[in-house]
Write a structure and sequence with these properties.
With about 300 residues, the chain is mainly alpha-helical. The protein contains 15 helices and no strands. The longest helix is centred in the first third of the chain and has 36 residues.
Length: about 300
């Protein structure tokens, strides 16, 4: 009997915990939240439609005939899917695409390989003048590409690299200020206890960088790689300056711009079809890597 009486107080808090009900909002507060949520979603839908309209226009024009593309009609009747095959007959799109893949792929690898160690040295290693060097690196971001294009062109011309993809790929292996900044900010969010524990276990700086920092920074590295790939894929100024005299190494951006100048008149249907083919690989890459890209961008800049 005594034992039964003693167990009742212990059961009482458990029973009371199950009886706790969620707080019910008053009708005015619920109505206010519903209106706020509806307004937010409506605004986002409108902005989404506004951003998608140019892409929809380009796609619809790409499946029109040449006569339809010159009219005010927005909906093709009928759909001319043969425009995409016609583009390959007018220009060596596959060759341009291969040159672009080589340029974008090697430039992405070069930026990652060169920027990760520099960002680690600026974020985790203690050495005199670190902050001064970081400020100098950030200051280079304020220099437009056109400011340094003349001396760079003279250097690459004396090296015999003009007319090839080397002036576009080799500088990527020397680091990129924006990528270094992005990676440094992410490295600062990694707890120092992890790197200190690796030092206690006898790991050197390269081992810490590879086995600890890089493995924890995959989202940021993926974001940097995607940024560089998109930049190289869409780059027009660099390939036009360094490869303009050699059609064999033209990229898609240069080939797309010269598409209208090498044919009589403006073939709007084929021009838009070529634009869709130009954008399609970038869209696919972004859709496949958007999770790592968003995670890497949102986690940078939390500390430091």
């Amino acid at each position: 009997m005594n034992s039964a009486v003693e167990t009742k107080p212990a059961d009482t808090p458990i029973r009371e915990a199950h009886l706790v009900q969620p707080r019910i909002l008053p009708p005015t507060e619920r109505r206010r939240r519903l209106i706020r949520s509806t307004g937010t979603h409506a605004l986002l839908i409108v902005l989404c439609v506004v951003f998608l309209m140019p892409f929809v226009f380009v796609f619809l024009t790409s499946v029109m005939s040449q006569q339809q593309a010159l009219t005010r009609r927005l909906w093709p009747a009928p759909f001319v899917w043969g425009n995409y095959a016609e583009v390959f007959r007018f220009e060596p799109i596959l060759h341009y695409a291969w040159n672009t893949v080589v340029y974008a792929g090697l430039a992405t690898v070069g930026v990652i390989v060169s920027s990760v160690p520099v960002a680690y040295a600026l974020a985790r290693m203690r050495w005199r003048g670190r902050q001064v060097v970081f400020i100098i690196v950030i200051a280079t971001m304020m220099l437009p590409t056109q400011v340094t294009i003349v001396p760079l062109y003279l250097i690459f011309s004396r090296l015999g690299w003009v007319g090839s993809l080397k002036p576009l790929i080799v500088p990527a292996f020397l680091g990129d200020a924006f990528s270094i900044f992005l990676l440094r900010q992410f490295f600062l969010t990694i707890p120092e206890e992890l790197t200190d524990a690796a030092r206690v276990d006898g790991a050197n700086e390269l081992q810490i960088l590879w086995h600890v920092v890089v493995k924890l920074s995959k989202p940021a590295i993926a974001a940097v790689g995607l940024f560089e790939f998109l930049y190289a894929w869409n780059d027009f100024f660099g390939p036009l300056v360094y490869t303009g005299n050699n059609p064999g190494i033209w990229t898609l951006s240069v080939g797309l711009q010269l598409f209208t100048t090498t044919h009589r008149g403006t073939l709007w249907d084929l021009q838009m079809a070529a634009a869709v083919l130009f954008m399609l690989p970038v869209i696919i890459v972004f859709l496949l890597a958007q999770r790592a890209f968003i995670e890497g961008v949102t986690l940078t800049g939390v500390k430091g």
